[in-house]
Amino acid sequence: MDKALKTMIDNMPEKTGKSLDEWKSILKTKAFAKHSEGVNFLKKDHGVTHGFANTIVSLSKEENNAPDDLFATQHQGKEALIPISEKLMSVLGKFGSDVKITPKKTTVSIIRKKQFALIKPATKTRIDLGLKIKDKPTGARLENSGPFGTMCTHRVKLSEVSEVDDELIEWMKEAYLKST
Predict the structure, then answer these.
(1) 3-state DSSP call for residue 128?
(2) CA-to-CA distance for 38 and 156, rounded, in angstroms?
(3) Where are the beta strands (DSSP E) in 26-171?
(4) What is the pTM of this model?
(5) Among 60, 64, 94, 98, whose CB has the most other CB atoms within 10 angstroms?
(6) What is the side-by-side order of every strand in the sheet holding 154-158?
């Protein structure tokens, strides 16, 4: 945890009248569709300043969206794709101890010093694997980044675990090695 955040959390009871855990309990009783709705609720109903309100809502969201929950949510209605996602994460995770697998709301980011791969359950029958391999030509299987835009340079569409083959693993390894 960074020093400024720790200081803010330590000062929260004095500045807001409640600890972070108390604020999290209050937020659990509400359902906000957007981050800003939670922030505005704390500001208007409880007189919390914007900085504290933003921090409380952000930290509350992190706690409520554990990586397993995010992964499960991504695959809701797409459960048949879970073995493909798990195989990709397994292979990517073995490239080095510096690999971080970070589930987000709709994707799983694979990060070294920078993100070098992105796993997205795109449809009910397809995973899109985004890779960042600068100056690599595209081909029939290794397409341009498509919907990933600048987050990745390439995309590979996967519908079966068997498609996580030697060719794909080499591309993933190349993306990993170029991510330093």
Answers:
(1) strand
(2) 38
(3) 100-103, 108-111, 115-121, 127-131, 143-144, 154-158
(4) 0.65
(5) 60
(6) 100-103, 108-111, 115-121, 127-131, 154-158, 143-144
